[in-house]
Fold:
Amino acid sequence: MSDRSIEPGATGTHPTRWLMTHYGPYQASLDAAGRPQLAPDPADPAPTPLGLALAEVDHRLRIRRPAARRTWLAAVEAGRDPEGTGRGEAPFVELPWDEALDLAAAELARIHRDHGPTAIYGGSYGWGSAGWFHRARAQLHRLLAAAGGFTMGVGTYSHGAAERMIPHVLGLDFAAAGAAAPDWDEIATTTDILLSFGGIPLRNTQIDWGGIPGHRVGAALERALDRGLDMVTVAPMADDAAAAGRARWLRIRPGTDVALILALLHVLVSEGLIDRPALDRLTYGWPVLEAHILGRDGTPPKTPAWAAGITGIAEAAIAALARNLAGRRAVIAMAWGVQRHQNGEMAVWAAHALAAALGQIGLPGGGVGIGYGAGGGFGLPQTGRRPGLIGALPNPNGMEVPVSRFADILLAPGATIDHDGRRITAPDIRLVWWAGGNPFHHHQDLNRLIRAWAVPRTIIVQDMVWTQAARRADLVLPATGPLERADIAGGLQGPTIIAADALVPPVAEARDDHAILAAIADRLGCRAAFDDGLDAEAWLARLWDRARNGAPNLPDLPDLPDLAGLRALGRIDPAPLPDAARQRAGRLTHFRADPEAGKLPTPSGRIELASYRIAAMGLPGHPCWQPPTEWAGSELTARFPLHLLSPQPATRLHGQLDHAAPSLAAKHDGRERVMLHPDDAAARGIADGDCVMIWNDRGACLAAARLSTDIMPGVAALPTGAWYDPSPTLKDAAGRPVCRHGNPNLLTRDAGSSPIAQAPAAQTCLVDIRRVDPATAAAERPSPHEGPMFADRDTVTTASPDTGPAA
Structure:
């Protein structure tokens, strides 16, 4: 093994060390029996217990040895083309590592030879590891690129619409725009009014991609509110500040935020409250947008009365909010959930238009922030440091498709997808390889995904635990977790950098992702291209040297210790770099001070409130309200009168650790809870805690009702991340299995936001809900956290739920 695992028998002697996770830093040690122990950072002002579940390294769901689906293995051994129809049903056969690696390498080489590189989909996505080196997605994509190319997903499920829209408006990429947004220190000391579309839910600030030094968002928000910050939450659900009475809450129908913003702009224009000199200096296209707002383009004027009928917010409240914004230092915040609607790009564009009309972009404590409350790192002051993450390799023979259009390309190879001004022809995918991540959590319309999942010849999954994706794979490779390997982490959203050796040996036969893929690269003859022939330890030294000694786009950091010194300390918290190295944070400030010298990289060099590039896509060339397919004003409400939102959960990271204690404790009778307004529940005879069925034409799931006035009538909220658990007996109206556990993606639409981003539009979703009789609820007990059936090549056996399959 190339990781720095401790030797068995060293229990009780390993000193306390630091571990950086997506949930923040923890102190890690072994107890006298050799079991891992985690403790929150004593200096963390608001530590979260969620990461403590990582200490359960030997959970019964761990994948212990390589395994192949028996029917797939039989087809490969007989020289037949495998079929995917038995995925999730046929038992697995455990294999020696050498056989499993040979099978993976041979399948990759065969697909590449017979069908070309674009027939291989590198499907890894999302929150894999907080470390710099052990990043499953980066490691897999390096192998596939080194082996000759592949198809990869671009964009994210989290903020895909904003990622594509912000470059059109500001010319900056999503990360640079986030760095240029007002930070929490500025908001706490300078901002007068924070208008938040979608709210700032502190549950999301427990986590952040790449690790965070501590949980400080709640304290910063409290400081701002104590100083007198006027906070307005515009959302269908109350965030923490609104629920505590510290923010004014305007209840808005989901998906109608653009209509509200246009009406705010109408008031500002009509009453002479816009900052016209700033618009003239800093923006392009304002006259086009102004004509639309005032109805001079043949559309209705976007008055508060017009917006009231769409948003459900009273006309007088809209006018009062616009006047309250004028002349004050204002931040326009927008949660990522707002842009996860059909036409979600327009909401991002409209937020920037509102801030521009108020003259706030580029001012300290003023402007736009797309993502406050989406993670614990957004809004932290920039330190100027960049981590030495392992990077990608060129993929010259491959192609890119929007990540959320994964099912589209499987179901319709050869079809075209319009994406940000280009037309993509969907490849014919024969091999899907997933290293970390679980599409049966994050993809929309799971019944459609199940149909698509049956299409490829082979699906390979490498992961730690038996997720639904792993259980539906053909070849499964067991990967290690963060306590079983050495890495460096941190530095993404704060100064803290942590390095530590492995605390415990790998569970059973698990190997780290790099070791797995390096062995396959050896078999394919591309090891040098994959990783220069270096093992994990050599790579950690290389990455740290890059961070310390400077590299392209990285400053020289001579104040940092060498790797041995970093490991001896375990954790360092270096001071921020001088302001000269933090220019990203001041990008819009420089532009505002001198728009000519600091031109933005847009076609006009300014903030674009109208865009001929977007108009050329056949779309409105300015922010525009477009009624979604499913919303409170659509005809579909006659059948499905409730708008379903699928927010992020408070008790896990998306679907990660759904099997751990914090997530399990928050369920009711083993099911996820769906929030309903008491009026909607009463109309359906539903009491708090009742088992209910949520359904639409796409599917159905069971959940437990939670009644609350923190959600507006006509809206329901079922958190994402409950592992898919299809009932063997209970079917929906179309004969498909009902999820007994409460996965909302049985219900959400698998359709792109618009041709700009083709991003997820999961929040555009109508459903109905009914009470389930107690007998049916009792008969349909959830059991999502189980491993698969196992077999030898002839006889099926059942794995032990405690120890996994026998060797």
